[in-house]
Design a protein that fits this description.
Blueprint lengths: L1 E3 L6 E3 H6 L1 H12 L2 H11 L11 H17 L1 E4 L2 E4 L2 H16 L11 H8 L24 H13 L3
Antiparallel strand pairs: 1-2, 3-4
Helix pairs in contact: 2-4, 3-5, 5-6
């Protein structure tokens, strides 16, 4: 089946992607994650792309395999300490990375996940923010965002709740 990239317009075969071992592994990892995070991770992976060439599917698969266990565990280890890392922390940190890149504060291509983990280790829920991670069920006082409430409802449905 032929597909067209919505970003660059390149035509590719979905069958070829699924048949390619690294591409298949990368797609499987992305599909296991929540939709908002999967979309954000695609933006994050672009930070690893060298300017003069494409990012190989093997590299994409490797990068995703490196962080998937921490995403699923909802915590990271940084400088010998453990930090909580719910979905919101990952989304916020990836947004910070793209902002830093756009402002010239983050040199790309990235070589590893150190910068992202450093940012996540500094993440704190803001007042009014609802952490949609059903395992932590943490809600801060303040006005609830309709967007986050919607995400929380979708995550609950996805998880059978």
């Amino acid at each position: 089946m032929k597909t067209r990239c919505p970003c660059c317009g390149t035509t590719a075969s979905l069958d070829a992607l699924v048949a390619h071992e690294s591409a298949r592994e990368a797609l499987q990892t992305l599909f296991k994650l929540s939709m908002p995070l999967g979309s954000a991770l695609v933006r994050y992976l672009a930070l690893f792309r060298p300017k003069a060439q494409d990012l190989s599917m093997k590299r994409v698969s490797t990068l995703l395999a490196e962080i998937a266990p921490d995403i699923q565990a909802k915590r990271i280890s940084r400088d010998g300490q453990m930090f909580e890392a719910p979905l919101e922390a990952w989304l916020w940190a990836i947004d910070q990375a793209t902002i830093a890149r756009d402002e010239g504060r983050l040199k790309t291509p990235l070589k590893g996940h150190g910068w992202l983990y450093k940012v996540i280790s500094n993440w704190r829920p803001t007042p009014g923010q609802i952490v949609t991670d059903p395992t932590t069920a943490m809600v801060n006082t303040g006005k609830q965002s309709k967007t986050l409430a919607g995400i929380a409802a979708l995550e609950a449905l996805k998880n059978g709740g």
